[in-house]
């Protein structure tokens, strides 16, 4: 079936099947968070992006093979409600941005800096620090050698705008700068965007709106 990226809480997951990687998108919790389960097709190793909520739902998707790692995109509570239970059940190593780790109540095993590589099996993801929504938010970029890139943006980029900076002009200026220079300026229009809430998009769909976002300040 064709992947749409549209999921609902309590509904089925959607699976994006790439040549080297399977991406399962699940919506969980009252904030309708997206969690992403990545599976290396060569090794079957798995990695979870944001153990946001509904631990039993996430563990059901993870299955008996477990996960090697959990990456928390940022420190806001709606993105780690299930983290403790998922780690207890799987023994997964935890990753988070260095500047946000202290705000996550589950110890972080790996402090992530801008440009660091995180592996799932034979697949490599590159972390990009995007400052503004929080000090240590990270996006994960998968540069698919068989196709276009894929980027998991947490709450830093959505269809129609960057993440919430709470009407703080300095935080907005930082976030729009980082999103432009580290995402839009270096990745092509075909890049698929997987946000922390809601539907997916592409950089090509959002790029024409960048001047509008800057002008409105959010």
From TrEMBL:
<dbReference type="InterPro" id="IPR036866">
    <property type="entry name" value="RibonucZ/Hydroxyglut_hydro"/>
</dbReference>
<protein>
    <submittedName>
        <fullName>Glyoxylase, beta-lactamase superfamily II</fullName>
    </submittedName>
</protein>
<feature type="region of interest" description="Disordered">
    <location>
        <begin position="199"/>
        <end position="218"/>
    </location>
</feature>
<dbReference type="InterPro" id="IPR001279">
    <property type="entry name" value="Metallo-B-lactamas"/>
</dbReference>
<feature type="domain" description="Metallo-beta-lactamase">
    <location>
        <begin position="32"/>
        <end position="197"/>
    </location>
</feature>
<dbReference type="Pfam" id="PF00753">
    <property type="entry name" value="Lactamase_B"/>
</dbReference>
<dbReference type="InterPro" id="IPR051453">
    <property type="entry name" value="MBL_Glyoxalase_II"/>
</dbReference>
């Amino acid at each position: 079936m064709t992947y749409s990226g549209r999921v609902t809480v309590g509904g089925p997951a959607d699976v994006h099947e790439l040549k080297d990687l399977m991406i399962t998108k699940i919506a969980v919790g009252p904030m309708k968070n997206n969690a992403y389960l990545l599976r290396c097709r060569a090794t079957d190793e798995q990695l979870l992006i944001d153990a946001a909520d509904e631990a039993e739902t996430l563990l059901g998707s993870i299955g008996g093979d477990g996960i090697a790692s959990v990456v928390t995109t940022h420190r806001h509570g709606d993105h780690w409600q299930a983290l403790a239970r998922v780690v207890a059940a799987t023994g997964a190593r935890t990753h988070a941005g260095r500047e946000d780790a202290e705000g996550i109540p589950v110890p972080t095993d790996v402090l992530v800096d801008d440009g660091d590589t995180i592996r799932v099996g034979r697949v490599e993801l590159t972390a990009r620090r995007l400052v503004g929504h929080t000090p240590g938010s990270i996006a994960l970029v998968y540069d698919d050698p068989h196709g276009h890139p894929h980027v998991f943006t947490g709450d830093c980029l959505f269809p129609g705008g960057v993440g919430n900076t709470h009407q703080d002009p300095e935080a907005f200026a930082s976030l729009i700068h980082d999103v432009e220079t580290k995402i839009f300026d270096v990745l092509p229009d075909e890049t698929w965007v997987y946000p922390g809430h809601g539907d997916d998009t592409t950089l090509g769909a959002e790029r024409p709106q960048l001047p509008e976002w800057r002008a409105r300040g959010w």
